[in-house]
Design a protein that fits this description.
The chain is α/β, with parallel strands linked by helices. Helix content is 39%, strand content 17%. It has helices at residues 16-25, 43-53, 65-73, 92-101, 119-127, 140-151, and strands spanning 34-39, 57-62, 80-84, 110-114, 132-135.
Amino acid sequence: MTRASTTYRGPRLLQPEFQASIEKRVPRRAGRKLSVLLVDDDVNLRMLLEYVLKREYEVTTREDGLSAMAWLSAGQLPDLIIADVDMPRLNGIELLTQLRASGFFRDIPVVMLSAYDGADMKNACLRNGATDYLLKPFSPEGILSRLECILSPAPQR
């Protein structure tokens, strides 16, 4: 019995057909890339997400909620924020609470990332105004699809 040989083509997110599929579906506003603020204390996850997102989005990264609030307070206004729940200094729920209490940042969609699989954490995030809640680990296609849904304009009826 012989085994069919297969050629390893590298991670799926590097394959041309994956890159082509995201080029067709990611929304843009007035010809510019939409901006995403990515807030996570895990440098490896930040680098991975930045790599996945940067082809279609303008990505800014921060290591915790406090540095994210400082960046926002300096006059930056992203189209969407992705934040980890568990971070030092100012965690994701505290960041979310401050954003929703602010008149200036309250309408920015916020996607929370967490390794916590329990309903309590997800409900706490959603009750505090999160737009969506994603579990780690996640697929690049999954997060791109979620962002596309959140950032695409609602269809006209």
